[in-house]
């Protein structure tokens, strides 16, 4: 059987001020039913662009999918005509964004917005669409769902709005849910509730989930596999447990060292020095070399290929094997 979602060697470019910017440079991953793949990276790493390409909402200038493949159960999505693409969006692949307030229409009640989906996409009538909307709001655990259908987005808290957006994404029972920084705008306790909700819903519905985040803390306990992106490229790719236990890329080590952890009581947090590079002016060789504590002369000269350090575990570092073998910090 073909995997649920298979992204292979995806390359996305932007044309900015007459210059080609490589936003995504060879991203590959697969996702099966009930699995979560986390795409981890700082802003500008290409992780959101990659998600939009998969969702089919990027085929507009100045963005260009230069090559690669995105297959859903074996069907190539890239290059499908927009009319066919629309059939996939929502029905097969749905997306949750960071900011529910901009994704929801402020003018209409949440009930109307959810019911509109059932009306347009499923041809349901008034009564049926209302019943479905209530069911959906209960599913995402909005208290007094029936009563709140008539409320507008601004009458809900940030966390509740995010639940409504999740409800809308799930309305058509997609096979794949792409969650792009779904908790970033929320405070820490609400973040945990939303992640719990997403994990539970994924279990119930047996969806595949692509979780895009800059926060390794959000990923813990949710992701089966993790893809770490840096400056548009894959820095490391591994089963979650392997990546936490034995990272093979200095960037991943840096990310792990800067996450507060229960098992490192009072230990210092070590943020990675410097800022990610301008995608329009990437450093030579390894794009991480200006910030890398382990860099040597070869790093500025040669771009490291993605190499395997263990089955299913790869890193793009000239010293991946040594980094993988070293004691965790
Ligand atoms: Fe650091 Fe060099 Fe590895 Fe890049 S290739 S991550 S600069 S050690
Ligand atoms: Mg983003």
What is the total tally of β strands? 12
Q: Roughly how many Å apart are the termini?
A: 41 Å
Q: What is the spatial order of strands in the main beta sheet?
A: 6-7-8-3-9-10-12-11
Spatial extent as radius of gyration:
21 Å
Major sheet: 8 strands, mixed
> What is the N-to-C succession of helices and strands?
EEEHEEHEHHHHHEHEHEEHHHEEH
Q: Residue ranges: pLDDT <50 for 5 or more in a row?
A: none
| Structural class by helix and strand composition | alpha/beta
Strand content: 15-25%
Apparent shape: globular
Which ions, cofactors or small ligands are bound in this entry? iron/sulfur cluster, magnesium ion
Supply the number of helical segments. 13
Which percent range fits the helix content?
25-40%
Mean pLDDT: 89
Membrane topology: Peripheral membrane protein
Pfam family, one: ABC_tran
GO molecular function: ATP binding; ATP hydrolysis activity
Keywords: ATP-binding, Cell membrane, Membrane, Nucleotide-binding, Transport
Key traits:
329 residues; alpha/beta; eight-stranded mixed sheet; four-stranded antiparallel sheet; 13 helices; 34% helix; 23% strand; globular; binds iron/sulfur cluster; binds magnesium ion
């Amino acid at each position: 059987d073909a995997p649920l979602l298979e992204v292979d060697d995806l390359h996305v470019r932007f044309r900015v001020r007459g210059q080609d910017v490589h936003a995504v440079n060879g991203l590959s991953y697969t996702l099966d039913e009930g699995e979560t793949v986390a795409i981890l990276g700082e802003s500008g790493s290409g992780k959101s662009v990659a998600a939009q390409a998969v969702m089919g909402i990027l085929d507009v200038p100045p963005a260009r999918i230069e090559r690669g493949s995105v297959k859903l159960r074996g069907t190539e999505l890239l290059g499908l005509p927009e009319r066919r693409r629309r059939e996939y969006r929502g029905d097969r692949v749905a997306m949750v964004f960071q900011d529910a307030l901009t994704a929801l229409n402020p003018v209409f009640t949440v009930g109307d917005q959810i019911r509109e989906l059932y009306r347009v996409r499923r041809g349901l009538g008034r009564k049926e669409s209302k019943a479905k909307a209530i069911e959906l709001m209960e599913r995402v655990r909005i208290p007094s769902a029936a009563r709140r259908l008539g409320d507008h987005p601004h009458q809900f808290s940030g966390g509740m709005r995010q639940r409504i957006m999740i409800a809308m994404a799930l309305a058509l029972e997609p096979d794949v849910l792409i969650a792009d920084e779904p908790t970033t705008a929320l405070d820490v306790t609400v973040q945990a509730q939303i992640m719990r909700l997403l994990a539970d819903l994924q279990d119930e519905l047996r969806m595949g989930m692509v979780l895009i985040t800059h926060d390794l803390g959000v990923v813990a306990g949710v992701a089966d596999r993790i893809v770490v992106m840096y400056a548009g490229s894959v820095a490391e790719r591994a089963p979650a447990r392997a990546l936490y236990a034995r990272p093979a890329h200095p960037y991943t080590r840096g990310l792990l060292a800067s996450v507060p952890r229960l098992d490192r009581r009072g230990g210092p947090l070590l943020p990675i020095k410097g800022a990610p590079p301008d995608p329009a002016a990437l450093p030579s060789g390894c794009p991480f070399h200006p910030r890398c504590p382990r860099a040597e002369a070869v790093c500025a000269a040669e771009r490291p290929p993605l190499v395997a350090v263990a089955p299913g575990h790869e890193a793009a570092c000239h010293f991946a094997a040594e980094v993988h073998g070293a004691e965790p910090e």
